[in-house]
Write a structure and sequence with these properties.
Blueprint (H helix, E strand, L loop, with lengths): L2 E8 L10 E5 L4 E7 L8 H10 L4 E5 L3 E6 L2 E6 L2 E6 L5 E2 L12 E2 L2 E6 L3 E3 L4 E3 L14
Parallel strand pairs: 1-3, 3-4
Antiparallel strand pairs: 1-2, 4-7, 5-6, 6-11, 7-10, 8-9, 11-12
Length: 144
Amino acid sequence: MMSKWMIISGESSKPPNVGGVQIAPGMDLFDGLIIDTHFSQRGRHGRLLAAIAHFPQAIGIGLDERTAVFVKGNKLRIVGDGVVTIMDGSSVTINDLPYRGDGDNVGIAGVTVNVLPDGYQYDIKKRAAIPPPLKKIRFASNDV
């Protein structure tokens, strides 16, 4: 309920379609974001894409279970066992939602998708993922 737009219901197992997601105003603590939870576990990719078709200027945030984002300024920091899927509609080149009827599948192209595990960050203003410092892989002497 903290984002500007909230997904209040929608079908998890379908592709993006007209009427496939219901959106209501949230508390607007995070401007320009649409947040969906239990994301990978419930296959909610289609409904977040449908929300992006409605609000292509928004950044869609799909939070897996046991995963969170900490917000500081313009940056999100991902923490937890799952991933955060970020869908950015700002570069959409095709969006036929206005030309489709209720229940029709929606054509949308140009959505940028980022899948970020624990330790990654995302700059909301720049719309860019930031990897954590890379660690060198070390092998035990008996593993080589």
